[in-house]
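Aggregate trends can hide what the representation actually does to any particular protein. For completeness, the protein is quoted in full, as a sequence line and a line of C-alpha cells.
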Amino acid sequence: MKNLHLLAISVGMAIGSAAMAEPSVTLYGILDGGVSVSKLQHQSAKVQMTNGNWLSNRWGLMGQEDLGGGNSVYFKLEQGFNLSNGSEAVAGKAFNRETALGLSGDWGKLGFGRFGDSLRTAERSAS
C-alpha cells in the first residue's frame, strides 16, 4: 500500500512537470544618439548631444507563456527615455510607449493596453 502511494505521487509529479513549459521573457532596447554642431555667424561653435535622431530611445520587456491547447498569454512593457541623462521620455509616466497584456491562440488574439500607432500595429500583424 505504501509503495502504491509513492508510485502515485511519482507519476503525479512527472505529469505535473511535463505540463509546465518554460516562460519566454526578452529584454530589448534601442539606443540612438548623436552629436550636432551648430555655428551662428560671429559666434563660437556649439556642440551638443542629441537624442533619438532616427528612432526613439527605449527599453522593454516582452514575454509569452504557453497555457496549453494552442493558447498562450503575452505581455509587453516598453519605456522611452532620454539617452543623455537617463530620464523618462514622458516624466511621471512609467512604460509610456507600449504596455499590453493579452491572450492568443488558434482563434486569434485578444489584448488590452496601449499598443502604439496603427502603422506599427499593421507591421506586427503582417509578420
User: Anything to note?
Assistant: Strands lie at 24-30, 33-38, 46-51, 58-68, 71-80, 98-105, 108-114. The mean pLDDT is 77. The chain has one domain: 23-126. DSSP finds two helices and seven strands in the chain.
